[in-house]
Amino acid sequence: QVQLVESGGGLVQPGGSLRLSCAASGSIISSYDMGWYRQAPGKQREWVAAINTGGITNYKDSVRGRFTISRDNAKKTVDLQMNSLKPEDTAVYYCNSESLRKLTNNYWGQGAQVTVSS
Known about the structure:
The protein is mainly β. The chain has helices at residues 28-31, 98-103, and strands at residues 4-7, 10-12, 18-24, 34-39, 46-51, 57-59, 67-72, 77-82, 91-96, 112-116.
């Protein structure tokens, strides 16, 4: 049974930091390229960061240098460390894999709310 559970969201001031974690069932983390996505109110969901099974990472231009994606196959988690947060980072954050999403008929977890505000 496929399951993705995001955690670690919250309210933070501009310039602050948060660390999101995604717990995945089975061998999802070790078997698939993983990514983080976000969706702000009234906006389309957008890709933020990715890590492949070999550990190679990539980032959306607006978060590069501030966010770091990582994977722990033993813990079956993929994390997103977010530093120097800006109000425009406010969104619900989701983890997923495009390959997994297609295999599961567009499954998404509940996401984690991140609010950056003074």
